[in-house]
């Protein structure tokens, strides 16, 4: 049994949008759960676009958003107007036959639609529901809005990054979304494990901000035990030198070097004789600035990926700083088959990252690319709920379902 | 005096039932990643046993240390955070297969780099979960890893810092926490597959911390493939694809701002009375604002400096703008939202109690442990593991 069929038999209703929620559900889809994504023609996943225009719709822009495509593979997609009583009822009918629901609306949305946990539980006592708003479903900020960047703002992390002379410094890439997504997967799996063991569903609350706080655990713990924050030392390390990011040959090319033992230091000195003017760790920490300057002069004439290979072959902790393009060429990713390729209407063949765990030597195969809007209306509403073609046609005429985005009037 | 949560933190909610009651997990390595993966199991009730070498797990050597008197062995608060509610035994790492805890385990979590030889786990017929920097195969498998190395290779690091560089190394053990979380997902997914009858054989998972951290940056590679690469590093707190997106000073603290959609931008202008910008159609597009950041920024900074963070935050949120307070480490413990949700809980370790992050996801009917006690090295030597197995 490969990972791709592990969770066959589970059905997840995915009401989430953007990055965090869809990633959480995608991980279960990659493991074989049937994940049904629910959008509507007017409230489509905002990761298809947050600036939709008539031209964008005409150009099928909704089907070309790379971010949307990457976190919705292996899913089915239906459209339902949840503000329409018929659409709402169809969702409840689906929930009645599902194991779990996941959503990341801001706090007031589902209660207003009467689709919050009590209403879902009323049609399915055993349902697991994971809600993952930015700040959690309880507390004074429960209805506050956030993106991944807002999550990082709120987590304390910016006060740990960079140097004391810099403002609180973001890492960004909206990492709050990605980490929230991994925690969402953990939340779903934990509740589904309990349901499988006991038959009991339940409500699960996840705060995306709280998901990011463990990444700053070192700072939190320092504050707690010393009653003061850790010093912001930039790329310097309190105990090791050299330790930093150094320029390499080419435009914006860099290498990270972290010498964390005397054996590594001696190996580096053997390679870069200019460093012989520096001695033990006490000397290196005292003359850190001169040391960094000398090392930077040496690395500036080296090609970063070649230098990484050379330093690593000597047991020295080092890495080239990749960008998007070089990630595609990364030797480790290539050797492990990390990027898989799926052909998708409107965009052609696209790279997809594998699950970061594998049972054995090969990555779990990915099966289907992200669905188009409403692609599986017939399969899901007909196949699971038993609606016939005439009923589906009526739903389309009444704009309860559809397969093209519409701008709200 | 260490800081403590103001209320009881052992459990929240009425039920003492935990989802992983009866599940036996063993950690034989004690890296941050293996420890965090096992911590998530322990927080939800699994019996987690650390089989430590005589000198203790590597996490016992990690900063920050609890202040101690001279001559005393330093005690790692990081170890405490990662290992509360677990048992500790000292085992023979040359032959782990005969360790009682290991023979009774449903899952063994390890990092091969910490084992004295590759045969340490040979002959074990149960589920295993390896967590290593780069995975068990490939040309980097034997490379020296670190959190920084992972951030460099995933591409995260290159976008942080001044435009001229050098890029900034993210703080702490973030990559390992993400690796442990991802490995938890892999292990639990496979255990659930077994429970459902979909997987009949023991599994041998290979978790790569590098691949786990790609979740943050894989879009960079996808965009680059589509000849739409992200622009180079743009400076501290300046990022594609929008503006304003960053952290700026107010009268009394720091405000995090993200304005992505046209309506958020217009509302942000109204909030700060930036009347000159609000009616300019060109600025409705996020990418145009980013291109005009040097024009917009002085006015934004000037306007923010006249307001209090707290007032702007709440007022902005009421206007549906995703603004944020940017709390310092000290302020984190007193943010009303986090206090009300018990985002931090007490860890008891030897004679000390300190605050650590609580588990971020909360099952309402079967709540997790909030905080707990940390076992001393070898405290559970002699425990009958056959009795703990259900």
Write the layout of secondary structure elements.
The complex is a heterodimer of chains A (409) and B (390).
Chain A: E1 11-14, H1 20-30, E2 34-39, H2 54-58, H3 66-70, E3 76-79, H4 85-95, E4 100-103, H5 109-113, H6 117-123, E5 128-131, H7 148-154, H8 175-198, E6 203-206, H9 208-212, H10 217-226, E7 243-247, E8 254-258, H11 262-271, H12 281-286, H13 288-299, H14 304-313, E9 317-320, H15 324-328, H16 331-336, E10 339-344, E11 348-353, E12 357-359, H17 377-383, H18 389-397
Helix pairs in contact in A: 1-8, 7-8
Chain B: E1 24-27, H1 32-43, E2 47-52, E3 65-66, E4 75-76, H2 77-83, E5 87-90, H3 100-103, E6 107-110, E7 127-132, H4 147-154, H5 174-195, E8 204-208, H6 209-213, H7 218-225, E9 245-249, E10 254-258, H8 262-271, H9 275-278, H10 286-291, H11 293-304, H12 309-318, E11 324-325, H13 329-332, H14 336-340, E12 344-349, E13 352-357, E14 361-363, E15 372-373, H15 385-388
Parallel strand pairs in B: 1-2, 1-6, 2-5, 6-7, 7-8, 12-15
Antiparallel strand pairs in B: 3-4, 9-10, 10-11, 12-13
Helix pairs in contact in B: 1-5
Give structural notes.
The complex is a heterodimer of chains A (409) and B (390). Chain A is elongated and about 85 Å long. The model of chain A has no long low-confidence stretch (mean pLDDT 96). Chain A is an alpha/beta fold and 409 residues long. In chain A, β7 (243-247) and β8 form a beta hairpin. In chain A, α7 crosses α8. The two termini of chain A are 50 Å apart. Chain A has helices at 20-30, 54-58, 66-70, 85-95, 109-113, 117-123, 148-154, 175-198, 208-212, 217-226, 262-271, 281-286, 288-299, 304-313, 324-328, 331-336, 377-383, 389-397; strands at residues 11-14, 34-39, 76-79, 100-103, 128-131, 203-206, 243-247, 254-258, 317-320, 339-344, 348-353, 357-359. Chain A has a six-stranded parallel sheet with strand order 3-2-1-4-5-6, with helices on both faces. Chain A has two domains: 7-215 and 355-397, 3-Layer(aba) Sandwich (Rossmann fold); 243-321, formyl-coa transferase, domain 3 (2-Layer Sandwich). Chain A is built from 18 helices and twelve strands. Chain B has helices at residues 32-43, 77-83, 100-103, 147-154, 174-195, 209-213, 218-225, 262-271, 275-278, 286-291, 293-304, 309-318, 329-332, 336-340, 385-388, and strands at 24-27, 47-52, 65-66, 75-76, 87-90, 107-110, 127-132, 204-208, 245-249, 254-258, 324-325, 344-349, 352-357, 361-363, 372-373. Helix content of chain B is 31%, strand content 16%. Chain B starts with 23 loop residues before the first strand and ends with a helix. In chain B, the strands form four sheets. Chain B has a six-stranded parallel sheet. A three-stranded antiparallel sheet of chain B has the order 9-10-11, covered by helices on one side. In chain B, strands 13-12-15 form a three-stranded mixed sheet, with helices on one face. Chain B folds into two domains: 24-218 and 344-388, 3-Layer(aba) Sandwich (Rossmann fold), CATH 3.40.50.10540; 254-325, no CATH class. Chain B has 15 helices and 15 strands. With 390 residues, chain B is α/β, with parallel strands linked by helices. β12 (357-359) of chain A pairs antiparallel with β8 of chain B, so a sheet runs across the interface.
């Amino acid at each position: 049994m490969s990972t791709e069929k592990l969770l066959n038999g589970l059905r997840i209703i995915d009401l989430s949008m953007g990055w965090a929620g869809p990633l959480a559900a995608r991980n279960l889809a990659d493991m074989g759960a049937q994940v049904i994504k629910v959008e509507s023609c007017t409230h489509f996943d905002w990761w298809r676009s947050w600036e939709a225009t008539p031209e964008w719709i005409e150009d099928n822009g909704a089907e070309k958003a790379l971010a949307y495509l990457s976190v919705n593979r292996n899913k089915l997609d239906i459209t339902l107007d949840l503000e329409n009583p018929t659409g709402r009822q169809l969702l409840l009918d689906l929930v009645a036959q599902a194991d779990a629901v996941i959503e990341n609306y801001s706090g007031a949305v589902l209660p207003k639609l009467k689709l919050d946990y009590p209403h879902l539980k009323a049609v399915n006592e055993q349902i697991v529901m994971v809600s993952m708003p930015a700040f959690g479903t309880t507390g004074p900020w429960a209805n506050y809005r956030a993106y991944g960047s807002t999550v990082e703002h709120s987590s304390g992390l910016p006060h740990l990054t960079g140097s004391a002379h810099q403002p609180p410094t973001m890492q960004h890439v909206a990492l709050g979304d990605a980490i929230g997504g991994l925690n969402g997967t953990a939340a779903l799996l934990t509740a589904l494990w309990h349901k499988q063991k006991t038959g009991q569903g339940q409500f699960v609350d996840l705060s995306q901000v709280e998901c990011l706080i463990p990444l700053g655990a070192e700072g939190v713990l320092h504050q707690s035990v010393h009653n003061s924050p850790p010093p912001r030392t930039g790329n310097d390390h309190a105990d090791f030198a050299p330790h930093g990011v150094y320029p390499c040959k080419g435009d914006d090319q860099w290498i990270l070097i972290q010498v964390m033992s005397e054996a590594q230091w001696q190996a580096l000195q053997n390679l870069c004789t200019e460093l012989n003017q520096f001695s033990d760790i006490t000397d290196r920490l005292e003359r850190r600035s001169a040391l960094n300057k000398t090392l930077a002069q040496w690395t500036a004439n080296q090609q970063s990926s070649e230098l990484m290979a050379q330093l690593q072959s000597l047991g020295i902790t080092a890495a080239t700083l990749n960008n998007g393009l070089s990630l595609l060429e990364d030797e480790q990713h290539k050797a492990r088959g990390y990027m898989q390729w799926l052909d998708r209407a409107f965009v052609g063949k696209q790279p997809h990252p594998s699950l970061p765990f594998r049972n054995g030597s090969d990555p779990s195969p990915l099966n289907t690319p992200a669905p188009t809007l409403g692609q599986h209306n017939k399969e899901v509403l007909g196949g699971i709920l038993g609606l016939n073609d005439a009923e589906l046609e009526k739903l389309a005429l009444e704009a309860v379902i559809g397969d093209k985005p519409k701008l709200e009037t | 005096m260490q800081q403590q949560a103001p209320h009881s933190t052992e459990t929240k909610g009425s039920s003492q039932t935990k989802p992983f009651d009866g599940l036996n997990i063993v950690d034989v390595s004690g890296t941050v990643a293996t420890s965090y993966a096992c911590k998530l199991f322990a927080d939800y009730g699994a019996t987690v046993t650390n089989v430590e070498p005589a000198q203790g797990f590597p996490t016992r050597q990690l900063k920050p240390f609890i202040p101690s008197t001279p001559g005393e062995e330093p005690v790692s608060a990081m170890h405490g955070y990662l290992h509360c509610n677990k048992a500790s035994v000292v085992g023979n790492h040359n032959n782990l297969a005969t360790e009682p805890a290991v023979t009774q385990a449903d899952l063994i979590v390890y990092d091969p780099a910490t084992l004295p030889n590759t045969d340490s786990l040979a002959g074990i017929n149960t589920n295993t979960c390896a967590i290593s920097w780069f995975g068990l195969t490939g040309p980097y498998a034997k490379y020296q890893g670190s959190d920084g190395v992972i951030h460099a290779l995933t591409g995260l690091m290159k976008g942080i810092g001044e435009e001229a560089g050098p890029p900034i190394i993210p703080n702490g053990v973030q990559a390992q926490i993400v690796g442990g979380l991802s490995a938890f997902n892999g292990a639990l997914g496979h255990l659930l597959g077994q429970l459902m009858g979909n997987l009949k054989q023991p599994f041998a998972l290979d978790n790569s911390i590098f691949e786990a951290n790609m979740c943050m940056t894989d879009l960079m590679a996808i965009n680059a493939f589509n000849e739409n690469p992200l622009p180079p590093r743009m400076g501290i707190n300046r990022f594609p694809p929008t503006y304003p997106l960053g952290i700026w000073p107010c009268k009394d603290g720091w405000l995090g701002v993200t304005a992505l959609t046209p309506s958020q931008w217009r509302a942000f202008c109204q909030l700060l009375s930036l009347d000159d910008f609000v009616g300019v159609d060109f600025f409705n597009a996020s990418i145009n604002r980013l291109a005009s950041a040097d024009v917009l920024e002085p006015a934004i900074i000037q306007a923010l400096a006249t307001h209090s963070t707290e007032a702007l935050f709440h007022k902005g949120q009421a206007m549906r703008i995703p603004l944020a307070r940017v709390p310092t480490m000290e302020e984190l413990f007193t943010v009303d939202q986090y206090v009300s949700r018990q985002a931090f809980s007490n860890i008891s370790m030897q004679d000390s109690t300190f605050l650590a992050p609580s588990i971020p996801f909360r099952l309402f009917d079967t709540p997790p442990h909030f905080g707990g006690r940390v076992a001393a090295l070898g405290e559970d030597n002699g425990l009958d593991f056959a009795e703990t197995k259900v």
